[in-house]
Structure formats: C-alpha cells, structure tokens
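Q: My labmate handed me this sequence with no annotations at all. I'd like to see what the chain might look like in three dimensions before we decide whether it's worth expressing. Could you predict it?
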Amino acid sequence: MTYVLTVIGAPGSRTLDSALLDAARDALAAAGAIAGPTDWLNPGDACDIPFESSIAENAEAAVRDRLGDAPVDLMAQARDGRRKSLLLADMESTIIAQEMIDELAEAAGTGEQVAKLTARTMAGELNFAEALRARVALIEGLPVTTLDEAATRVTFNPGALTLVRTMRANGAYTALVSGGFTHFLGPVREACGFHEARGNRLLTADGRLTGGVAEPILGPDAKQAALLELAEQQSLAPADACAVGDGANDLGMVQAAGLGVGYRAKPLLREAARVAIDHGDLTALLFLQGYRSSEFQD
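A: Here is what I predict for the chain of 298 residues:
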C-alpha cells in the first residue's frame, strides 16, 4: 500500500475499538481509498491502516469528519520516508511540563504578570524577543540559587524520554532547541539523551540575576535556522526531520520539518502544524513514524 493512516488514542485508553476502526475504514472507502488490514503498533492504542488513494489528504479529512469528536489523533502520509533521522524539540510545555520563566517569576513575586506575558507570547500575540526581555526584567535580583531550586521541580511530559531515546537508538540526531534558559536545558538534555541543546542565557552578577538575557536571543527564526543547519550538518533534507513544539515561536521550525507536530499546541501552531497531538503522549511521534511499542527505548 502507498499510504498509511495512523490512528492514536491516549495511552492505555483502549480507544481504538472495532467500531471506531470500522468507521475509519468506511470513511476511507467513501473517499475512494482502498484500505488494507489493520497493523497494530500498540494494541488498542495505536495502529496503521495502509491504503491506496489518489489524494491522501482527502482520505485523512474524510476520516476526521467521520470520527467527529472521538478522542484520537490521526495522520495520513506516504509510507516511504516516514521514519525521520533528525529530531528537534522545544523544551517548555513540550518535553517538560513547566514554563520555567513562570516558575522563577513566582519566586520573584511577579508570577501573575509574567504568566500573562508568557501566554500571550506563546499565542503569537507578542514579539518573542521583546516579550522575553520584558519577562526577564521582572525577575531581576533573584539569587542564582533560585534557578537550582526551580530545576528540582522540572517534570517530563509523558513519553518524552522514550521519544528521544528511541529515535537516538535508531540513528537519529536529536536536538533540544528552546527559547528557555541554558541553566535548565543542560539537565534536561542529559536526562533525555539529546545530542545537543540550544537556548538563551540569563545574565548574572554577584550571584544574582541582572534582569537581562544574553544577545542574540534564540527565538522563532533561530529555531527554524537550527533545523536547516542541523539537517545540512547531518547530510539530510528538512523532509528527514521531525520537529515538535507547543507555541507560536515553534511555528517556523515545525513547518520546515517533514513531520511537524504541535503537541498540546496553542491555536496558532495547532492550525499550522501538519499534525496535532491532543490525546496521545509524546510516543505518538514514534507511532507516526511507524515504530511499534516493542521497539521503544525507555
């Protein structure tokens, strides 16, 4: 079969029952596609349905319409080239659950003000660099030790470590590319196993934050540039990359990748990404590439 429709539910939910898959097959048939047998990537939670069709995008849209508000993520794509050799991931609210600038602002007593700026920035309402400078100014004077304390509260989103470790074990180059701060990027990179991490550096003096951030600021353009640079370094095309993020600053990077994913994404990115993961965890990116749960590296 030339194409494959991947259907993913929440881990352990067993959402993918016979009724749901029959509805997906009916929709494919109505769109003029010829479906093959279901191939389970993880029984009950993720599967591939191979199919032949002249217009795969029409088939995907037809399935979405038929399934309505069923709690599943899905994507139709060509079978060839679906496994990627380069992974770029945003850190905050993607690989980890937190926005670390918001954590620091709570300690500084400016939490509500900074959180509002963060939300507007991730929604694409504010210029990223200008908003980052404004937020960092609001945590001026914090002891550097506060960063260490905040780092102890970092939690990983489900599937994050498995995603990175599995792709790396299968030869992919992995990079953490974040508008967040290097103080947190290092430990996250090490825990997940990313080959490298890029981010922004908070300025300090006499053991305290100065309220400034080192220039140039790593923002949306730098994220996209990182994808193109790393693809060239690895002798790959952008189509060979998987990129995942949650906010507007990830837009260019996600759109440039062959597999561009919005994970629990804000509306602007969710609409622009090739696929949105709203129900599965980060292992959904592995299922989209055809990995089986038996291949996962935990």
